[in-house]
Amino acid sequence: MRIEVIDFQLNPDQFLNRLKNVCNRYNRYVQQIIYTTNILFKKVNWMNRSDIYFILLDYCNDEIFTFIEEIRRLGEHSYFVFVINDNKDLPKLICPSIRPSAILRNPIRELDLEKVINEIMIDQRKRILGQENLSLKI
Structure pTM? Predict the structure, then answer.
């Protein structure tokens, strides 16, 4: 499982430390953690598709929203977890073009983060098994 953290926050340290702690417990499942910041004006095409995107937001303006929509188009089956400071951006993030898997509010508890990752892993396994069951052996 590849995890990508896209950082639009001023102080992501607390979240990053908690994510590292949780991923250490899942180290045999987590292949790679990618941390990206200030990529808003770069092209999205260079990104490798990740399984989980943690998107850290202090606010969500139109440029960030458009950027997130583009990532969603590239990673249709990826999981999006938003980490926000304020609930005012919720109506913008909860829409069909984004489809968040979870929205966490700062300060984050490790237990909540672990629960989200665990639920995503279970869902991912179900999806993979479902695809295997759809295949026809000849």
Answer: 0.83
* Mean pLDDT of all residues in 25-48: 68
Which is nearest to 122 in space by CA: 18, 29, 5, 21?
29
Q: Which residues of 68-88 are buried (b: 16+ CB within 10 A; e: fewer)?
A: beebbeebeebbbbbbbbeee
Distance CA 15, CA 7 (A): 10
pLDDT at 120: 92
Structure-block tokens of residue 123: 């869902």
pLDDT tens, residue by residue, 53-84: 999 988 888 888 888 888 888 878 889 999 99
- Indicate if the alpha-carbon torsion angle 104, 76, 122, 2 is positive or negative: negative
| 53 in Cβ contact with 4 (< 8 Å) | yes
Q: What is the DSSP letter of 50?
A: P
Q: In sequence order, which residues have a C-beta less than 8 Å from that of residue 74 and are 6 or more positions away?
A: 44, 45, 47, 49
Beta-strand relationship, 79-84 and 52-57: parallel
How far is the C-alpha of 8 from the C-alpha of 126, rounded, in Å? 31
